[in-house]
Amino acid sequence: MASKIKPHKYWQSLENTIYEVKKVMEEHNYDTLPSGKKLAKLGYGSLNNAIRRYYSGFPNFREKHLGEELSRKPNGYYTLENTILEAKKVIKIHGFDTLPSKNKLEELGYHGLSHAITSHSGFLNFREIMNRKNELAERTFK
Fold it and tell me: Has residue 2 got a pLDDT over 70?
């Protein structure tokens, strides 16, 4: 579980924050910094708050201080076609039979894709749209 209460202004030290992030990643066997929601769930609410408050949020912290490559897509990227394409990639990469749930996508770090699916029509409708497109493609290539 999370560490004890830290001294005043502890989290304003970048060195301290990076140390704590690396410690959490090691203890919980993460290759990349987990989401703020995940950190809070694990009991690291103060670390979550510090990253948001002092280091301009998770994408900034990941990129600037951990050297993680951001998977954020440019604005306007998630058209219906691109959303389907990205969903298929996730299914293939992770060996799923079908599109996973919203929670599973977000747990895996696909927040943008999850949001795009929700905004296009929701997960249930999106799965139906994907299946129809797959059926059309299969008929076209037979």
Answer: no
